[in-house]
Automatic annotation (TrEMBL):
Name of the protein: Thermonuclease
All copies of domain TNase-like, residue ranges: 37-186
Extent of the signal sequence: none
Pfam families per record: HHH_3, SNase
PROSITE patterns named in the record: PROKAR_LIPOPROTEIN, TNASE_3
Source species, domain of life: Bacteria
Organism: Pontiella sulfatireligans
């Protein structure tokens, strides 16, 4: 079955979420949780626990337990120009420690409670986090080389439009790379072009594969990434984006998926129930 691996090597552009107003949660604290990492962590505010997934950024993974995870780690390594994927895990742990340090004092969360799904028990929601000294955590992660500009977006709490906010963060990523901050210190500049070309080659190869497995109807709002990839034309990146943007109410809702080919959209509609 044909798969398409859509990789945005300088940062993925995801659609902004709904226009629901952001709630401001002052005095939030970092809660102990084994699943905490650089861009996703459990918070405690007024006695209520909530897992927050940061908008705009993607930190290196800390582990890989599925084939989809392995593909994701491979893609991250190529983005950062790394030959050794174990560097992803190393800097994933460093990003986790960096976030824990930044959130050692009470902080502010802005969230509209948009579902970020993922594998965390109890679910998680997208949010912006401002540290005790008034700095945006996502920007700090990118500036210090612990994350890339990538992922789900919306206007910032201060009203900055998502397009401008994304552009600024992408520029911060470029500066971090030039300064060889964090994970960028491990980048092999002589192989960066080659490694990113390998991602494009993998995309083409996956697109040429035809594996006629799993032809049944899938529930789009509960299917796993691996299950979604059994749909003709849906590769790892598209499957992940579907998971990030769920729930989908109907076929028209698929328009929220950026740059989705018409044929792939038709294939999805034929294979899923909403």
């Amino acid at each position: 079955m044909k798969r398409t691996l859509i990789l945005a090597l300088a940062g993925v552009v995801a659609l902004s979420c709904s226009a629901r107003e952001l709630d401001r949660l002052d005095g939030a604290k970092l809660a102990a949780y084994g699943g905490n990492d650089g861009d996703s962590f459990k918070t405690l505010h007024n006695g209520k626990e909530q897992i927050i997934r940061l908008y705009y950024v993607d930190c290196p993974e800390t582990r890989a337990t599925t084939e989809a995870d392995n593909r994701r780690v491979r893609e991250q390594a190529r983005h950062f120009g790394l030959s050794d994927k174990n560097q992803i895990f190393r800097y994933g742990k460093a990003a986790t420690a960096f976030t824990q340090k930044q959130l050692s004092k009470p902080f502010t969360v802005h969230t509209a409670y948009a579902d970020a799904l993922g594998r965390s028990k109890g679910g998680r929601v997208y949010g912006f986090v401002t540290t005790a000294d008034g700095k945006d955590l996502a920007a700090l992660l990118v500036e210090n080389g612990y994350a890339r500009a990538y992922g789900f977006r919306r206007a910032l709490p201060d009203g900055t439009p998502q397009k401008e906010a994304a552009a600024r963060l992408t520029d911060k990523e470029t500066v971090a790379a030039l300064k060889r901050k964090g994970i960028w210190a491990q980048t092999d500049p002589d192989r960066l072009v080659e490694l990113r070309a390998a991602s494009r080659l993998e995309e083409a190869e996956l697109n040429a594969i035809d594996t006629p497995a799993h032809t049944g109807i899938l529930k789009i709002n509960t299917a796993t990434e691996d299950e979604l990839q059994t749909i003709n034309g849906v590769g790892p990146a598209t499957a992940r984006r579907i998971v990030e943007l769920r729930p989908f109410k109907n076929a028209d809702d698929l328009g929220r998926l950026p740059r989705l080919p018409a044929k792939t959209k038709t294939n999805i509609i034929e294979r899923v129930a909403f």
